[in-house]
Amino acid sequence: MSMLFGRPLCAVGFAVVATAITLALPARAEPAPPYETLIEHLDRTPATLEAEALLDAARARAQQARALPNPSISLEAENAYGRSPFTGYGAAETTFSVSQPLELWGQRGARIGAARAEADAAGLRRDQSRWAVAGRLALIYAEAEAASLQHELAAEALSLTQADASAVMALVEEGREAVLRGVQAESEVEAARAVVDETRANRDAAFARLAAVAMLTEPVTSIETSLLNRAPNPFTPDARNPLAVQIAEAELDAAGEFVNVERLRARPDVTASLGVRRFEEYDTQALTFGISVSLPLFDRNTGAISAARAEQRAAEARLASLKLEAQADRSAAQARLDASITRTRAADNGVAATEEAYRLARAGFDAGRISQLELRSIRAALIAARNTAVDARLARVRAEVELARLDGRAPF
Length: 412
Known about the structure:
By secondary structure, the protein is α+β, with helices and mostly antiparallel strands. About 65% of the residues lie in helices and about 10% in strands. The strands form two sheets. The protein has a four-stranded antiparallel sheet, with no helix packed on it. The chain has a two-stranded parallel sheet with strand order 1-4.
């Protein structure tokens, strides 16, 4: 994996870094697929599959809403097997009828409209889930890359510390430095070695998390395609409302449709029937037809109507809140992204300055013009600057992920 920053011209440092990285990585490295490749397989992730299934369910309900109510058939026999003159079946009247509920008052149209509005909202929620998964994947990818870089930087810091300690021990043997300085140098080496072990554990955990979230069959042991080094492209937001506001608008439309559905359910149920009646006594038959209407005396659906209207008011409140917050959130996210870009540029300049300072300090220490304490301080500044540059790049990725979430798109 290529490093982000330049390196001091120290042969011993390069040798130790190469050895440390070689020992830290398995013999057969499986680099993670590029971020773009992982994005192409978003449809395999459980969150996307769940959102897609919910959308399919909403579309199926919209299709079902168009179905007409089923008719019912009935067969009735009257005036049979009673007392005289209705003994036996000779005077019976047999009626076969078909009844069909009639959806009047616009009930069917209201039901279809509510189901269609819910499907539209489910489609927008599916898109939101997809972009949320893309953002989470980008962040985990960047965190894994940052953990790998921090391990490499810790390995190089160990090599620099060991090189400085070797120089100090040479001076101690020559009697030019106190033995205490050698003990301090060895202590610094052990501390640096502990940091290498810690960052290796963090790197392995980040790689495992990336493999799990991206649903990779092989474990990840390296990242070759950098996401931290990628600067976000300028993005012009859609002229429409942000995706979260669009979802709130769709949910408000659906809530309004459900109010209409519940209101129309309070209307009387009307059923038409048509049948044939046979008169056994006269050996003839005649048509029967009728209509039945329910009387809404006891149940006028008032509770369901009130509940639907309350849900509509809640949807209106959510929409109003999101409209107020959407623009402010996007402006804040854009400001954080701009600040992170500036911070990254400044961190890179700081790395270049501290590398040059360390090169000069090491030359001065070898010549006896710089003390061990000064060299230690400058080396610590170099290590901190390099880690700061990694943190700045990770912050830039986080800012881009947040902005992409608000815009309803995949990061980068």
